[in-house]
Amino acid sequence: MNTAVQDYNNAQNSSDQEICHQLAVLIDENLPEAENKIWHAHPVWFLEGNPIVGYSKLKNDVRLLFWSGQSFDEEQLANEGSFKAAEFRYTSVDQINPSDLKRWLAKARKIQWDYKNIVKRKGVLIRLK
Fold first, then answer.
1. What is the pLDDT of residue 118?
2. Which InterPro entries does the record match to this protein (predicted)?
């Protein structure tokens, strides 16, 4: 795991730290080819420069965000924003279902919208996969 991500996780309170650590471990296990770094102050994993998944500490929970998640056809993921992102929010490490997360990450690898070039395309998203 990236040391900056470890630092981010360690900066959280104990229960959120557990959530962040478990998410990072599961993401690393299921997306071993992904680049991982702090991006816009939060841990994010990229495939070929395109943001795929990340998490962030919000006021009352930890939000797991999939940039192309609205295209996954997963009822548990809530739409986020005006593009194609979807999220799941955790308040306890017990809410993390490894089989759900593994399935979502597999879809994140297969279903991608081009966020890498969204500024160049003036907000227009194009499906990559």
1. 64
2. YdhG-like (IPR014922)
